Amino acid sequence: MSKYQSSIVTNQDTEDLSQALIVYYCLCGEYALIIEKSLETLPVRPTDHSIVINNTNYIYTLSAQKGQPVIIQRNENFEKQYRYYCTRCRLPIAYDTVQVDTSYHSSVNNSRHHRHNKTEQKAPYTYIMPDALVLKQGLVPDIFAHELESTKNSG
């Protein structure tokens, strides 16, 4: 099976597609995410208020550099996060999670063969960190605007 997929796009398709896509930028102004759905309409993760993108339901492009995994303790459990950083300023903008499972369990390989092993499964979600992306280049989120204004006034 090929790693590449080709598509035929007509002018009609291009117009419909460009109207449906939304571009988000990092706080530094670098483009970071192109997605077909507004982030404001997606669910929010209760643990850290990150925006949840279901990787099986949405097509998107995340322009970011993947960093080393980070282990986060959440109550009595641990979560392994693969963080994504802005390619320009290195601000963390998103992450994928992997549950750290130290038990042996059965997993499916190629839908036909079963094997028992110690595994880490990538979750089917990508999480956008709160207030990490904006719709307009140079726009400061409201949460930071007050701090920016007080810095200007004190200087």
UniProtKB/TrEMBL annotation:
<dbReference type="Pfam" id="PF25809">
    <property type="entry name" value="STEEP1"/>
</dbReference>
<dbReference type="GO" id="GO:0005737">
    <property type="term" value="C:cytoplasm"/>
</dbReference>
<protein>
    <recommendedName>
        <fullName>STEEP1 domain-containing protein</fullName>
    </recommendedName>
</protein>
<feature type="domain" description="STEEP1">
    <location>
        <begin position="18"/>
        <end position="139"/>
    </location>
</feature>
<dbReference type="GO" id="GO:0090158">
    <property type="term" value="P:endoplasmic reticulum membrane organization"/>
</dbReference>
<dbReference type="GO" id="GO:0006888">
    <property type="term" value="P:endoplasmic reticulum to Golgi vesicle-mediated transport"/>
</dbReference>
<dbReference type="InterPro" id="IPR057965">
    <property type="entry name" value="STEEP1_dom"/>
</dbReference>
<comment type="similarity">
    <text>Belongs to the STEEP1 family.</text>
</comment>
<dbReference type="InterPro" id="IPR029704">
    <property type="entry name" value="STEEP-like"/>
</dbReference>
